[in-house]
Structures
1.
Amino acid sequence: MIGFHTKWYLEAISNHQKNAGGLKILLLEQRKEILEKSIIVTNKNIIQLVAKKLLMILNFF
């Protein structure tokens, strides 16, 4: 009986670790997507700022 409980306990721990690993990968992928989206938004903002500055310079002449 003790052996059965030990085996069950070890399997439960093993399954938990596998699930936790999968969850970590999911969270990392989500974090990566968020970073990629924020980089795209930042790049768009930089392009808009540069365009505005160029228009201001061109209007000056």
2.
Amino acid sequence: MTLPTLSKYPALNNLERQAGVPKAYAVIGVAALYFFLIIFNLGGQLLTNFAGFVIPGYYSLAALFTDTKDDDTQWLTYWVVFAFFSVVESFFNIVYWFPFYFVFKFVFLLWLSLPMFRGAEIIFRSFLAPTLSRYFKGGSSSANLRSKADAAVNKSD
């Protein structure tokens, strides 16, 4: 895995030239401030939701302009998992029960969204697909087997 170089971003090159601050220091400073605000819950909900929308939104739009279907599937999977957790989160007042909730949510959203981890795909394949596919035609084979087993048990009762 190679990290992108900061030199390919014109805005950072201009900042370095005008302010005299190295690009790496500027990026690290902004990231540290962002994380500091999340840790102390100064706009934690807004900042975590912003991270949950901006990175995936960018990659989703980029995927729409490619000819391959794999990246479209990856980002559709992300949005399904993100929506599921947003709905679950809205039912529970987790902020009051879980200290530093937004820090964990921020890290979790990065894990879900960054292409190098493909966390949304892991959550979808291990939990959501087996649970929800029985409600959709042509679901996964494990869900189909489960529904057939449930039907056989119900038929014998």
3.
Amino acid sequence: MILGIDFGLKNIGLALSAGELVEPLGHLKSLSLDKTISRINQLCQDHQIEKIVIGLPQGSLKLRIEQFTTQLKKVINLPIIFQDETLTSQEAVKKSLHQPLKKRQQSQHAIAAALILQAYLDSRF
């Protein structure tokens, strides 16, 4: 099982893959770094995660994600791969337009994580 992560300052989108299919999992509120990492660690245990794919943008958030990943590696002993996440947020907005506003805002992060994870899987084949 692979966990996809779309890291954000307020929300962290999550998605799962057990092969070629990707499923949005939901999102976590970005709490303190320790709490966020603890929740991700628990998810990894609950879903028997073998690898983590984290979206990496080209903008100002890149350094923050790299710092987050460094801390994550100290707690979670799994391979962590960066995947370019260019345009995933815009695509996630498009895919969630049919949903009510509150649900749309919540699901966009999980959809972005699913798109990141799907891009990683597609790049392997």
4.
Amino acid sequence: MSTFNRSKSINQRTLGVGTPRTASFGSPRVKLTSVSHWFRWLVVIGALFPFSIAIAGGYFYLLPSLTQAFQGFGTSKLNDSMEECNLFEGNWVFDESYPLYNASECPFAEQGFNCLGNGRRDEDYLRWRWKPKRCDIPRFNVHGILERLRNKRVVFVGDSMSRTQWESLICLLMTGVEDKNSVYEINNHNITKRIRFLSVRFNSFNFTVEFFRSVFLVQHVWMPRHVPRRVRSTLKLDKMDDISNQWVNSDILIFNTGHWWVPQKLFETGCYFQVANTVRLGMSIPVAFRMALDTWASWVEKTIDTNRTHVFFRTYEPSHWSEQSHRLCNMSDIPISEAGGKDISVFSDTILEAVNNLTVPITVLHITSMSALRSDAHVGKWNGNPSVPDCSHWCLPGVPDMWNEILLSYLLSQS
């Protein structure tokens, strides 16, 4: 990882006077001419010396300011010191300049995530910014980012949490577009929970931000043959999702998975694991998850040109359900100071391990710990259906915006 503090090397030159030509000093005229010649050189050197000092001083004084000025226009200070700064270790600070957009004015923010529009009265949850301990995330500069994304293809792959991040990024980017009608879904599709593909085009900048629904990343097959009655479907852990070929040739590719890898979404619906032609009824979820990630990692190494495509994997996002009932949220008014164990996730650990074993560069967006502190920012009862609270998804604007600010920081550091 690169850092925010950029080192500077200054090459200093020393001025020297070469050895003077030899001359015959036999006559007074030659001697006088030589003295006059040396006097003129001393005058010139005397005049230049203070000027050189002023130039050098100005160089040292102005260079940092100029560097910062250029960094402020859509570039970041991440270039050299990311190894010294863990972007995901820090705390949430109150910032009146947030939020960065209004969900009611963004046509791509689902109504179910627009907590303010759904009756939430307090607004403080909108005004928290993530602050790493040893550095700063560059302030969001929408015009610089739009230029950086010109002619690019951004692809999100994953579950509904990925779709929320996709919506967040589009809303952030639209704040810099004058003609809002130039931003549109290419197939005129509405955003729904089950739709497998959405693509929003920013026509003025010739780029798309796409979402592919692939909650497991591997193939989900219905009604396999010659299996016990309780098996209604299987996950082929050794096969990538059948739409994975559409993720290739992207410039920015962001993955996530995890929230569907639970008994309620798997075994209780009759979904079990399959390797080759064998259904593994006794395989545990953590083991299956690791096998699926190994399949994903192999696919990335064999299929994705990482010289073109910057691949990200976002870690697991914790929920904040009440310990007494899974129908109630354990929400706070402000970010909490202790994660209470929610910063620990077997899914996140497995993702980190799988990426660490890759032979190609992948960037992990390790957002588990920072998100665990935001028990104030879930949709909760402000989802348009108060009788069914949502303690997993996030309000927009909100936490996913910060994930995207970090994502964009990595991209801008490559400029």
